[in-house]
Amino acid sequence: MMPYFEKLLFLLFCLILIGECRKHRTRRRRWTGAVEPHKHGFPLSKKTQDVTKTRKVKTDHLLRVDDHDFTMRPAFAGPAIPVGVDVQVESLDSISEVDMDFTMTLYLRHYWKDERLSFPSTTNKSMTFDGRLVKKIWVPDVFFVHSKRSFIHDTTTDNIMLRVFPDGHVLYSLRVTVTAACNMDFSRFPLDSQTCSLELESYAYTDEDLMLYWKNGDESLKTDEKISLSQFLIQKFHTTSRLAFYSSTGWYNRLYINFTLRRHIFFFLLQTYFPATLMVMLSWVSFWIDRRAVPARVSLGITTVLTMSTIITGVNASMPRVSYIKAVDIYLWVSFVFVFLSVLEYAAVNYLTTVQERKERKIRDRLPCTCGLAHPRQLIMGTSYSDVDVNTTGTYGVPENGEKQERILVHLALGDDRTTSRRKNSRSYVSMWIDTHAIDKYSRIIFPGAYILFNIIYWSIYS
Questions:
Q1: What pLDDT score does 24 carry?
Q2: What is this structure's pTM?
Q3: Is the peptide bond preceding residue 190 cis, with omega within 30 degrees of 0?
Q4: Which of 5, 144, 233, 359 is deepest in the core (most CB within 10 A)?
Q5: Domains and CATH numbers, the chain
Q6: What is the dihedral of CA 74, 257, 176, 209, to 10 degrees?
Q7: At what angle do helices 274-283 and 294-317 cross, to 10 degrees?
């Protein structure tokens, strides 16, 4: 009985072992990606080959980067290597009058030949790389002269492209934003035009080692047609080149990107010239206000003066502190003088009115009666000495042509102490009349006429 039981256990153990082996084999097939054959004998899919395991030639080996010393320029100790340059301006970001600079974004491309990078190719096609290879080979050390700030764009990666041709020609392109200085002349501001330049030059290599040149002449500079600025009209772009000399290091090739900008005047007409002109015209309103309305004329004059001061301060706050006079300064300060003269005009009218009232008061105190004047018009118009009896000195302010003439009557009494007592009551008077309203009448014509003449001269010179 016991041997039979042992045989049964051994058989059961063998069956369990065979089952585990089958499960293990099935799992292994799933892991290795094997596919069971179809019942008709065709496979469900083909096994793809892993191309990453295929041995390829590395770029460093193809270009033989490790076989050469790329710290030295191509054709070292030989003639100067020519490096062609072309530029595509993407945008003019800003022009700052206060800082006297401009910001430009551009695509800068260099062309040269380095035989050390030549490689065999049956199709004569170039190879393109990103910025990682640039750190291993020689590239021109071009920098921006008079640059304040500049950077290479790095979103999402460094915006650098390197293209190598089989014969060793290289194209090196990068996207740069640069802020450079621009010497501006504001003597005609805001009716001015500005010419700015972006200058490129090799930092280390003189003209004996590296020759920078525009690859296609004037065609080397291209601009986007959509470039526009809020305050300027871009008139033209052009290129030039010349040699720059440094006393310590020598001569260098320098390339120039020149562009001319003309300022839009309409903004300044609305913000500066029209308000200033309106303030000057508003100051003329006081010439039509009665001279006895002191609060009205004084407040109007002070308001226009303060407003002109505010306009002048606002314009100068947005401009650099230059030592010369700008065109807008001339216009604003002449306008300020016109406004200030209108205040002085009323001061003169008010002063003469006060003198008139004081003289009239003295005459009333000195004359016992002014009711018997026989010929008042002769007294008004008289400009020579005449002997008039005290009792015949009548009223002043006689109507003429239906209008009341307000004048200042000045009586100069000439007494002669050496005359007899019978002539003590006789005095000589000098009568002079000054029309205070005539000042306002003349100002209504002189002030507008002079200001119109100034505008004609100003705009004919600066337009």
A1: 62
A2: 0.68
A3: yes
A4: 144
A5: 81-263 (2.70.170.10), 267-357 (1.20.58.390)
A6: 10
A7: 160
